[in-house]
Amino acid sequence: MLSVPQQPPTVGHVGSGPPTYDAEPTALPPADPDELDDLVADTVLDGARYGTSTLRAVSLRGDSARYRGEPRRDALLTARFGAGEQALVLVAMATGARATPGAHRAAAEACRWIARAVGRSHDRLADDIRGARRGDLKSGLHRLTDRSLGKLRASAAEQGVEPEEYTASLRCLLLPADPECRTRVFFGVGAGGLFRLRDGEWQDIEPRVAEATGEPVVGFGSPAHETPEGDRLTMDLGITTPPSPYEPAPRPPRPPFRFRASIARPGDTLLLCTGGMAEPLRGEPELAEYLTTRWSEGEPPGLAAFLADSQVRVKGYADDRTAAAVWEA
Questions:
Q1: Coil, strand, or helix at residue 257?
Q2: Taking all residues of the chain, what is their mean pLDDT, rounded to a whole number?
């Protein structure tokens, strides 16, 4: 009689000891009766299966925000554009600026703007992914990201606040539904992590600023050296114009655009997350080891199991956590 391998039991925390805060939510954020659309749930959970990939996604309020009765600054959006094997799945996550009153709104708005942009261009994007047109894909996603974050800057101006007070990091994953296409595309700006669990080992594959794609992808060409309008792409070289003594001091540089296109292998688990998950995963080896034991064997976890794995706490890390994991059949 064959024995079915069992996953190890879940745990509440890892590391040197239990975190200071309670394990469960304590206080709700304050509510305005005239702005109830502004409320943010403590936790959102989603999942799907397309092509050869199984998706699990979660966004949960951090221990600190739960204790203080503050809203979750992280936002999560999952969407499918198109139908059948031509469909394209988007996972977008964002984190609003710390210690700003509209952080949760900025994060949600950033996710909505990028989703609208991707949705309106999904046919072209899916075609570029299947056709391995890396240069077109990278430049196109860069433009869509810039425009989406530009909407946030416009919203800040309308509200009469500084752009730095109404902004968000934005990290996205594109998954084609075509089972013959195993290209997975990450793009975005700001802090967070991109990791891959392969053959029982975690790999930190967050692209560096100057990195084109990470591992070579068969069929992907060189990046475009000009925009479609003919402008030379000197921004990647870090060339800046010297400041004029007659102009205000320049603002701090914006976070760089990051992009990675890679080919998934059967058995891989790809993990995209915000800083609240990336920092403990990098800083506490026991968390990485625990997730390895949970995610290396058997079928992908169900939604409840994925939530339990994602909220394993680590002392000293109390920020919101948002994560999307993709298991490859």
A1: strand
A2: 88
DSSP tag of 206: P
Compute the distance between CA of residue 321 and CA of residue 143 in angstroms, rounded to an integer.
Answer: 27
- Cα(97)–Cα(157) distance, integer angstroms: 16
> Which residues face 324 on adjacent strands?
57, 272
Whole-model pTM: value is 0.85
**Tokens (6 digits) for 129:** 């992914």
Nearest to 259 by CA among 226, 214, 296, 291: 214
Give the E-state strand segments of 85-191 in sequence order.
88-96, 168-176, 183-189
Q: For 292-320, give the DSSP string.
A: HHHHSSSSPP-HHHHHHHHT-EETTB-S-
> Tokens in use for 78?
């999952």
Give the pLDDT score at 239: 40
132 phi-psi bin (left φ>0, alpha ψ -120 to 50, beta other): left
The percent of residues in the chain predicted with pLDDT above 70, rounded, is: 84
Q: At what angle do helices 134-159 and 103-120 cross, to 10 degrees?
A: 140
Which residue shows structure tokens 């990791």?
A: 195
The token duo for 313 is: 């706490």
Sheet with 193-198, edge to edge strand ranges: 43-50, 53-60, 321-328, 269-273, 193-198, 201-204
Structure tokens at 2: 């064959």
Spatial separation of the C-alpha atoms in residues 208 and 214, rounded to whole Å: 9
Task: Identify which has the larger pLDDT, 298 or 220.
Answer: 298
